[in-house]
Amino acid sequence: MTRILMQAYKNKNPQFSNIVVTDPNPDVSGNLKKSFPDIQVDNASVAASQDIVFISLHPPVVMDTLELIKGSINSKTIVISLAPKITIAKISSKLNQTKNIARLIPNATSYINEGYNPVCFSSEFSRNEKQLVLDLLRLLGNTFEVPEEKLESYAIMSAMLPTYFWFQWNELQTIGTQIGLNEKECEDSIRETLKASLNLMYQSGLTAAEVMDLIPVKPLAEHEAMIKDCYKNKLLPLYEKIKPS
Predict the structure, then answer these.
(1) pLDDT in tens, 200-223
(2) pLDDT tens column, 140-153
């Protein structure tokens, strides 16, 4: 996720006085430095002493990391967590030096500044600082404020959503080249048809059933039940796993 954020900001080129990145894996830090030579790679305490601190970690290690960096956080520090499951209350229990805590569910499409990124703020977050954060996050794409209890739902329905389809589009492109189209023709066909199909589903005024009835031939009809079961059997348990307990 750090790479995605860094690329998004590189695209927009805002002026930061300093960007410090830390990672326990030196290979990860080294590769980030190669891609973004203006960043400073340093230890966790130095990274946590910046004005705005992004916590880009998997949930199981967030609390231990907060314990590690809490001495570098002060009352003016803005902390933005990108992790599901770990609530603002839990973060605050470790970082009670600051009231400026936010949680963001990021999206890979922020890489091209077209993210769909829900964010929530602690109730005591400074109003002026909140606007600063929103301005910063909106460089990533569509950033909007939601109640904290909806964040994990957006993790399933937005952050992870591209992974449900990318491999299918890639496979369709492979098939397209096998049946007579070149790579460019496949890319254009898939991209433009998908864009129009989404508009048809959500902007035509038709019901979902009416939209799906517009094409009488459905080559994958016999597999639809199995595909639906895959979604239900994977995504509902995953939501239960990542939602706050």
Answers:
(1) 999 999 999 999 999 999 999 999
(2) 999 999 999 999 99
User: 10 Å Cβ neighbour count for 109?
Assistant: 20
- DSSP-assigned beta bridge partners for residue 160: none
Give the integer Cα–Cα distance in Å for 203 and 154: 21
Model confidence at 193: pLDDT above 90: yes
Say what the pTM is: 0.93
If DSSP codes are grouped into helix, strand and coil, which group holds residue 14?
A: coil
- Which tens digit of pLDDT belongs to each residue from 42-96? 999 999 999 999 999 999 999 999 999 999 999 999 999 999 999 999 999 999 9
Task: Report whether 8 contacts 139 (CB < 8 A).
Answer: yes
Q: Structural domain boundaries of the chain?
A: 2-149, 161-242
The residues pairing with 55 across neighbouring beta strands, listed in sequence order, are: 81
Angle between helices 183-203 and 166-178 (to 10 degrees): 130
**38 by DSSP, 3-state: which?**
coil
How many residues are given for the chain? 245
At position 121, the amino acid (one-letter code) is: F
Token pair, residue 244, equals 């706050």
- List the CATH code of the domain at 2-149: 3.40.50.720
Exposed e or buried b per residue across 62-98, where buried means at least 16 C-beta atoms within 10 angstroms of its C-beta: bbebbeebeebbeeebbbbbbbbbbbbeebbebbeeb
Supply the pLDDT for residue 160.
97
Q: E-assigned strands of the chain?
A: 20-21, 40-41, 52-55, 78-81, 101-104, 115-121, 141-145
Q: Scan for tokens 């591209």, then name that residue.
A: 162
